[in-house]
Amino acid sequence: MSYASLFHSCRTSVTAVLGILSVPILCIVPGLMLAVWSLQTVLVHLVPIASWQQAMSDRMMSNGLASIVTVCIIAPLLEEMLFRGIILRSFLHRYPRRHAILASAVLFGLAHLNIHQFAVGVIVGCISGWLYERTRSLWPCILLHAAYNSLAMAIYFALMAQAKDEAWQPPTSLWITASMFAFFGTMLLRRVLAPGKKQS
Amino acid sequence: MAAEAENFPVRSRQEQQLRFVTRPSAADRPKRDIGTDKKCRPHPIVDIPYRSLHYAFIRITISCALPGALFLPMNRQNETFPSAPEATLLVIALFVAEFLIGAALHDVQSLSGIDPRDAAGAIVVWETACCSACCFTTSA
């Protein structure tokens, strides 16, 4: 087994897989981000973020280009390789597919080492795991993960520039637009990756 | 005598050496036992064509230098690593490694000038990379 087959063991080419799936994946990212944002708001009310945790997160983000490259490119590549390419691949051989996807997502959440990112990790891990199970390619998962991290980072920098904190709430128009895109993206993904569902 | 000379022609030393280093044709080469599984392929390093003694020497040297796991053929058993308990232990090992590296960086902070809080992201990323590489080596 080579690294090439680890990243893409699908019969269809990488270009074709990404060409078909990148639009729906990018469509669901804003909606996913807003849904996770709402969940995190609830979690922060229940379990407030410690000051040292916030300070560490701010420090990690303040390294300029190095932070951007690490968070948006290197981390998605390596994390997807470990949690989907190695762990989920093995789980799919051993356990039923739903259990395998959920277990790998929980491990992915646990690896983030805090309750707030755990929730994000489980949700993103489930979607990413489903993508991997359907396509047997890591590239759609990496695209989803990288797009999510990039959007989160962009929002973080935008809020920092406006000197706002987590009390910011997205406007209704943003909710509606993101939901429409998410619905469109989900329908497209279902149509492409789960075509048998409708017939059965 | 003439028939014997025809069947066993006398070759010069150079010709014999040339014949020795020439790769035998596909039909002459012994077929490798690659198992019944279609995914079962020998590692590329094992697939070095046997041409001469120095190739054999290189092959033996590489075999000794690299871990044996690299030479395991891809089969069903390797594909099922890690199981759920093994994966959980793997994540715990990641935490421990992160903690140890952070502690080590904290101790040598005055010498290295690197604040472990600045390097936290890099530590996590490189740990994940090392863990992936180790798992891949074991499962491949």
What does this 3D model show about the protein?
- With 200 residues, chain A is mainly alpha-helical.
- Chain A contains 9 helices and no strands.
- By secondary structure, chain B is mainly α.
- Chain B is flat.
- In chain B, 7% of the residues are buried.
- Residues 33-56 and 64-76 of chain B have low confidence and may be disordered.
Distance between the termini of chain A: 36 Å
Q: What sort of overall outline of chain A do the alpha carbons produce when their principal axes are compared?
A: globular
Number of helices of chain B: 7
Tally of helical runs of chain A? 9
Number of DSSP-assigned strands of chain B:
0
In short:
The complex is a heterodimer of chains A (200) and B (140). With 200 residues, chain A is an all-alpha fold. Chain A contains 9 helices and no strands.
Task: Annotate the secondary structure layout.
The complex is a heterodimer of chains A (about 200) and B (about 140).
Chain A: H1 3-7, H2 14-46, H3 51-61, H4 65-94, H5 97-110, H6 115-135, H7 139-161, H8 172-193, H9 196-199
Helix pairs in contact in A: 2-6, 2-7, 2-8, 4-5, 4-6, 4-7, 5-6, 6-7
Chain B: H1 2-7, H2 13-21, H3 53-65, H4 76-79, H5 84-107, H6 109-112, H7 120-139
Helix pairs in contact in B: 5-7
Which key terms come to mind for this protein?
heterodimer; A: 200 residues; mainly alpha; 82% helix; B: 140 residues
